[in-house]
Amino acid sequence: MAAQAGLLILALGMTATAEDQSASGPAHLRSVGIEQRLNNQVPLDLKFRDENGQTVTLGSYFSRGPVVLSLVYYTCTMMCTLTEHSLVNSLRDVKASIGGQYQVVTVSFDPTDTPELARAQKAIYVGLYGRPGAGQGWHFLVGDQLSIRALTRAVGFRYRYMMGMDEFEHATGIVVLTPKGRVSRYFLGIDYPSHDVRVALADASNEKIGNPADMKLMLQKGYSATGSLPAGGSPAKAATP
Questions:
Q1: What is the dihedral of CA 195, 201, 203, 204, to 10 degrees?
Q2: How many CA atoms lie less than 13 Å away from 118 in the CB half-sphere?
Q3: How far lies 180's CA from each of 11, 56, 88, 129, 208, in Å?
Q4: How far is the C-alpha of 107 from the C-alpha of 49, rounded, in Å?
Q5: What b/e sequence results for 186-196 when a residue is b if at least 16 CB atoms lie within 10 Å of its CB, and e otherwise?
Q6: CATH classification code of 4-219
Q7: DSSP assignment letter at 11
Q8: pTM
Q9: Residues 57, 139, 12, 184: what is their CA dihedral angle, to the nearest 10 degrees?
């Protein structure tokens, strides 16, 4: 592994359109971020594996209510951990329980992640959530590159694998989807106020599409000892365009 000084967390606090975000800034950051694709349809026929190693279709978690989607990778110890902790803290303050009126689906965008890693993550966060039955409503998935790419493109999630560091450069946030799999609302960064999440779930359950969120992205950004970003990618861990 290349020499590594550590991880730099870059916070962007601004109000901007998706076009503004993708068209400005350093070249390496234009390939990383979240483009808000409200009302876009997520492909529900995509196949993943759940925490038990069973092949599932994404659509199997829909039709019973809205879905909260989080995109992370399971060996990440920085922003992904903050994302999941913020999500569980927010949902603990929402009266409706996971698995009742809504589902939560956490998908790894690292195609080398395994069901064993997914199962370990599920044990942590379902345990922190602490309500009965949450294990049937919060799902942790892994998949191949084709399924991951199709899902991340559908919700506008762009990331970049840094081969020399075996890390991903990525943004943070969660997406609320309607029971039919349409993008209803984004929460960007790592702050998901429970009141706002509750309202977003209620709107999504009625197939309502919300307004764009303010761009308050937090990016996990790797850097080498020389201060330069490693170039290139890996066939197994390719970034989304």
A1: 160
A2: 26
A3: 33, 17, 24, 26, 11
A4: 10
A5: bbbbbebeeeb
A6: 3.40.30.10
A7: E
A8: 0.82
A9: 60
What amino acid is encoded at 218 in this protein?
A: M
d(C-alpha 38, C-alpha 156), whole Å:
9
List the pLDDT tens digit at each of the 241 positions of the chain: 333 323 333 333 333 333 343 344 445 446 799 999 999 999 999 999 999 999 999 999 998 899 999 999 999 988 899 999 999 999 999 999 999 999 999 999 999 999 999 999 999 999 999 999 999 999 999 999 999 999 999 999 999 998 878 889 999 999 999 999 999 999 999 999 999 999 999 999 999 999 988 655 444 444 333 333 333 344 456 555 4
Q: How many beta carbons lie within 10 A of that of residue 53, not counting itself?
A: 12
173, β-bridge pairs: 188
> Beta strand pairing status for 67-72 and 103-108?
parallel
The pair of three-digit structure tokens given for residue 187, joined into one six-digit string: 């929460």
